[in-house]
Amino acid sequence: MTKQLKYAQMIKSEAKRLGFLSCGISKADFLEEEAPRLEKWLKNNMHGEMHYMENHFDKRLDPRKLVEGSKSVVSMLLNYYPENTQEDPEAPRISKYAYGTDYHFVIKDKLKQLLQFIQEEIGEVNGRAFVDSAPVLDKAWAAKSGLGWIGKNANLLSKQVGSFFFIAELVIDLDLVCDTPVTDHCGSCTACIDACPTQAIVEPYVVDGSKCISYFTIELKNEIPQDVRGKFDNWMFGCDVCQDVCPWNRFSKPHNEPLFNPHPDLLSMTKKDWEEITEDVFRKVFKKSAVKRTKFSGLKRNIDFLK
């Protein structure tokens, strides 16, 4: 067995031990196929007011510009599918990924442990951990390393576990045996395209970010445009529609990460509770949650928009 293969296997089994669903490896190289796609997407203003998407174009496409001397991208998936969802069918809805502790903290911690393991077991390896907070095309890397394919809703899909997972990566200067991409299994299915409440999936595999409910409820800082009123399907933070209807998600199993469990009060809040939410309740229920990104005023704006 070569060193590159032995190290790759060691890293994968440690990732599994840390609770990741799966781990795949690809060569740190220029993302040739993604370059024209990203350029076109930005040119068509599909990023709306997410101006940060325009920054670091070259870094987004080449991890060697992020980590000097990088050789491998180690991609990992972490399940967040909850055991239970909100109880009141009339209550404004919150995306499942935001039920528990903000994933950035949870995953960064696991990635640090993995990097430490690599350094202790293998030797001097330099690298950086990324959790969708830097110019890294997570889905492209995960697909390249065989963890799934990018579906018609532009999410990474896996035959084994669906799509309710976070993607993270370590970019390291260690040569490893790489995995191969898997084939696309969307077939002729258009469930996600047909179900999107705001028609944000403008063509198969292309999502206009500026039309997505997640964009309106999280990223957009100004007033939500009136022309989408009544189209939010009761979502107040994020949206799971294109994942909920995806046939591959019938294979989703509940996560086993205690930090992703919701605050005890969250799932039982009624429509009335949400409409009358105070800043104190917001702070208590979302103490460590990703929902804090919208701030109390943002969530209140979203809830009022649903009325």
Automatic annotation (TrEMBL):
It is found in: Cytoplasm. Its main location: cytoplasm. The active site is at D132 (proton donor). Its EC number is 1.17.99.6. One of its GO terms (molecular function) is metal ion binding. Its cofactor is [4Fe-4S] cluster; cob(II)alamin. InterPro entries: 4Fe4S_Fe-S-bd, 4Fe4S_Fe_S_CS, QueG, QueG_DUF1730. It is an enzyme of class 1 (oxidoreductase). It catalyses: epoxyqueuosine(34) in tRNA + AH2 = queuosine(34) in tRNA + A + H2O. Cob(II)alamin binds at R60, D132, N153, L156, I167, S214, C239, D240. [4Fe-4S] cluster 1 binds at C186, C189, C192, C246. Residues 174-206 form the 4Fe-4S ferredoxin-type domain. It comes from the Bacteria. It holds the Pfam family QueG_DUF1730. [4Fe-4S] cluster 2 binds at C196, C212, C239, C242. TRNA binds at K221. Binds 2 [4Fe-4S] clusters per monomer. One of its GO terms (cellular component) is cytoplasm. Pathway: tRNA modification; tRNA-queuosine biosynthesis. GO terms for biological process: tRNA queuosine(34) biosynthetic process. Belongs to the QueG family. Catalyzes the conversion of epoxyqueuosine (oQ) to queuosine (Q), which is a hypermodified base found in the wobble positions of tRNA(Asp), tRNA(Asn), tRNA(His) and tRNA(Tyr). Monomer. This is Epoxyqueuosine reductase. It comes from Zhouia amylolytica AD3. The gene is queG.
